[in-house]
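Researcher: Good morning. I'm working through a list of sequences from a screen, and I'd like to move beyond sequence-only analysis. For each chain I'm collecting a predicted structure so we can compare shapes side by side. This is the next one on the list. No need for commentary yet; just the structure.
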Amino acid sequence: MRGDKFNPIHCDHRKELEKKLTNVDFRKAYDALEEEFTLVKSLLKAREKANMTQNQVAERMGTLRPAVARIESIGFRKVPSPSFNTLKRYAHAVGCKLEVRLVAAK
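Model: Good morning. Structure tokens for this chain:
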């Protein structure tokens, strides 16, 4: 109905995640995404440090904001992962250099 006020529902995401992680299947799927989560955190941190919006990154990359949003949601959607070249363009757009390293598994 028009004119109704929207009352947001408070959600403690950490608490909800802790609850869901007690489910063995959920935990297994969540743990399998650790590398993607680490990359996404790095991307978001670099963009934040550069004090840039997704639109600004997209402009520097020569693409559109939805493409940047897809890059920043690696592992969260069933879409192909960005290419090395795309990640390199993102890194350069936010003033960084892309570095890929292999580290010993835990």
